[in-house]
Amino acid sequence: MSLARFLLALIVLSAGGIARAGISVWLPRQGAPAFVEPGGMVQVEVSASAMLATAGWTAAVRNDLREWACGVAARATSIQGDLVPEWRLELRLPRDIPPELMDVVVRHRDEGAATAVRAISIVPDLESDFYLLHLTDEHVREAKAAESKEPAAGFRSAELVEWATPVVNLINPRFVVNSGDCTYQYHSSGERAHDANLIERYADAKAGYRVASVIVPGNHDVVRTGLPAHAESAARWEALLGPRTFALRAGSLFSLGHDFHDEPLRAVAAAAYAGTADDPTVRGRLVIQHFAAYLEPDARDAFAFRPGPEVPAPTLMLIGHVHNTRVEQRAPFPVLMTVAAHRHARAGFVEMKKDEAGQWVCPSVATWGPQSAFGLVGDHGTPMVEAEFESANDGTAAANRVRIRNDLPQRFPDGRVRFLLAAGTYEVTGGGMLAEYSYVDPAGVPRTAVLVKVDLPARGSVPISVTPSVARSRD
To answer: How far apart, in whole angstroms, are the C-alpha atoms of residue 57 and residue 75?
Structure first.
């Protein structure tokens, strides 16, 4: 067990941010989420007393509307770490769970509960083609755009992240990649740039996300190995967002996130990546880190992970740091860089598809350039993708209609919109119904949510209607 992991336990126990009564969730987390299909299994790593009864664990997942109980299919197994006892819970998700982003809640009858927010992404089909958004170098400093030096652009503000949130939710990428310098917490010298906890400010700014985020730190988030503030900055990040170097599986796609400023973690990254070499179930590899120079030598990436010829080449590596949208390298594997997102939430659009052999490929590499990134918002947060409902989308209407306008030059075939309606059974026109489920509003009134998949044309709009089902009307 690392010192940083021990510090995490101390922080969460004292601050109460992600834990209560001696329980904390290590994985999955907001920055290192799990991806699972409905009815699938997910592993949750928990720090808690080794003396707890194995049979005392329960678990659930929840969104902003309701909670779904999960089966603890494989009973907890105690693992004695160096400093903090660990438990691994194997959770079985319900088959009828909607494909949304969920918090995970673990409870023990003798020790309370812990929650990891925005930690589990339910995906209808993990082997289907998808797209992601790459937002890097957001450099969050000020809370409000008006406090920044470029208020119209939302420059380096938490409010810019909030402005972009409903746009991200409508576009509905499989996940968002945030490849470091999410904040400007530290100068590159290792000195603290701001007294406020900017990592917390950034994490809170994503509270409205209904799309998973894969997040790694940059040089302004966590101080480089060997500098005095390294341990403090590492523990701060891990307490709020999760591990700094981690491996994820989303079906046959393996993803590796790495803190490019941490020397010991580079060995962890290398071992995790090498472990996929002989795994026939891995059909693609995505590497995410803040920077790795390939065009020319750069001492700033001394601890970056660089897969060599002895291991399978990545399908794609995503980086930032230089504030430019360019191809850093094409062979032996592609490395794509995206411009800084600190103005207008500029995002790179990356497609991932299966080829005829069933291997993951990235068609975006062939055309990658400045046109591959676009602002998710205009001046003062004007959304570039927006949903306009005819009636209030608050659970009171018995039918509703929305028109989603996409002003971006990119089609988004897997868009999402969620209707909140009076209790009932519904039909969808203009999109495909993915889920219909009941919930109870804060006043105790039963309601129904309808989740719809919608194909958003480039520079166009599409209407979607939800009406009571014919069968229900006849009843």
So the answer is: 8
- Complete domains list, the chain, with CATH: 3-122 (2.60.40.10), 130-381 (3.60.21.10), 385-474 (2.60.40.1180)
- Position 86 confidence tier, pLDDT thresholds 50, 70, 90: confident
State how beta strands 67-79 and 57-62 pair.
antiparallel
DSSP secondary structure, 370-402, as one string: GGGEEESB-GGG-BSEEEEESS-TTTT-SSEEE
For 439, residues 6+ apart whose C-beta sits below 8 A from its C-beta are 65, 66, 446, 447, 448, 449
Check pLDDT > 50 for residue 325. Answer: yes
Contacts within 8 Å (CB) and 24+ apart, 434-438 = 434/98, 434/99, 434/124, 435/96, 435/98, 435/99, 435/100, 437/66, 437/96, 437/98, 438/66
Task: Please tell me which residue, 102 or 77, carries the higher pLDDT value.
Answer: 102
pLDDT value for 157:
97
pLDDT at 322: 93
φ, ψ of residue 106 to 5 degrees: the values are: -115, 140
Please state the rounded mean pLDDT for residues 341-365.
98
41/59 Cα distance (integer angstroms): 12
Q: Predicted confidence band at 208 (pLDDT cuts at 50, 70, 90)?
A: very high
Instruction: List all residues 6 or more positions away from 391 whose beta carbon is below 8 Å from its beta carbon.
Output: 397, 399, 400, 401
- Asked whether the predicted pLDDT for residue 138 surpasses 80, the reply is yes
Least confident of 5-19, 152-166, 407-421: 5-19
What is the DSSP track for 165-232? Answer: HHHHHHH--S-EEEES--B--B-TTS-BS-SS-HHHHHHHHTTT--S-EEEE--TTTSPPTTSTTHHH
Inter-residue contact 320 to 179 (CB < 8 Å)? yes
Max Cα-Cα span within the chain: 71
Among candidate residues 318, 317, 308, 374, the one with its CA nearest the CA of residue 345: 374
**16-19: long-range contacts, CB 8 A cutoff, minimum separation 24:** 17/200, 17/239, 17/240, 18/114, 18/115, 18/116, 18/117, 18/239, 18/240, 19/114
What's the predicted TM-score (pTM) here?
0.93
Q: What is the pLDDT of residue 79?
A: 55
Tokens representing residue 204 in the block: 């809170």
Query: Which residue from 447, 444, 450 is spatially nearest to 464, judged by alpha carbons?
Result: 450
DSSP 291: -
